[in-house]
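User: Could you write out the 3D structure of this protein bound to uridine-5'-diphosphate? I've included everything you need below.
Assistant: Certainly. Input first, then the structure.
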Amino acid sequence: YDPKTHTISYLQTRTYLPVKSLPPREKKRILVTGGAGFVGSHLVDRLMLMGHEVIVIDNFFTGRKNNVGHWIGHPNFELIRHDVVDPFLIEVDQIYHLACPASPPHYQYNPIKTVKTSVMGTINMLGLAKRVKAQVYGDPEEHPQAETYWGNVNPIGPRACYDEGKRVAETLTYAYMNQDCVDVRVARIFNTFGPRMNANDGRVVSNFIMQALKGEDLTIYGDGLQTRSFQYVHDLVDGLILLMNADYKEPINLGNPDEYTIREFAELIINEVNTSCKIKTLPAPKDDPKKRRPDIRRAEQILGWKPRWPVKQGIGETVKYFQRQLEAGLI
Ligand code: UDP
């Protein structure tokens, strides 16, 4: 700053990844709730690179500024600290509603808040969409199989705050569609992993990789015969964008059907990290689903989508990410 001339000279100009330049009629204003989170920030990257204008709202409970730090200051990007439980008014063309803690320890930390986030957050976003005629992406997840399966949730169990929150979010979404003609999309997202996951979010992928990198025993809850199917985050982002831009209103499963028992998965990670860590068994959590694997025929037929990242390759990338974070002293 030069006090004589009152001029500010910027010594450093930031460089950004190159974004596409879109003609005005193709350039959309897109709101991403939870856009500083693990999945949200990857979606933001993709939408920014495509040349859209992106507005992120996040309360930073599980999201981190760092996840989108590389876009701060970019003319197409805006980051707002806001909790979706409170109303939010803005003019946008599309809304991806991803705000909600998704790992059991995080969403069970404050179950009331988790239900409020799903229910009030979804009401607020649908209300916004109704006012501005935007499209909405809800973020529901159902236990196994095809979209036609109605699920099986213990309404007073420890997972209910998340599961029932998602279920009522779907009910709300279709009520707004039928009653107020809001243009909705619903993705049912299955277990997803990749860089920018929280190292300490307590989920199986981050726990096992961190334990393997630190040379600790891998903790299997229960007998380890329960199954999960894991998708790499880039596949999910592809699916979300395809769904948003398809003319299809019913729920669509997005997940990788490649199913592992948790014990097999522990072994896969021990191999990928190339360590001699052992496995130890801890008690199974209450209401832990025994099997989960998406039927993705609908996504294949309607969106022409299927996962492209083999689980092993995605795990390799994620291990490298956690390794870099550990070396940099960030975790
Ligand atoms: N799990 C485990 N060890 C861990 C963390 C999780 O065996 O350190 C198990 C957990 O009991 C569940 C599966 O791995 O059966 C997936 O758990 P996660 O918390 O990742 O997500 P969920 O799919 O249950 O929501």
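The first helix runs from residue 38 to 49.
User: Perfect, thank you.
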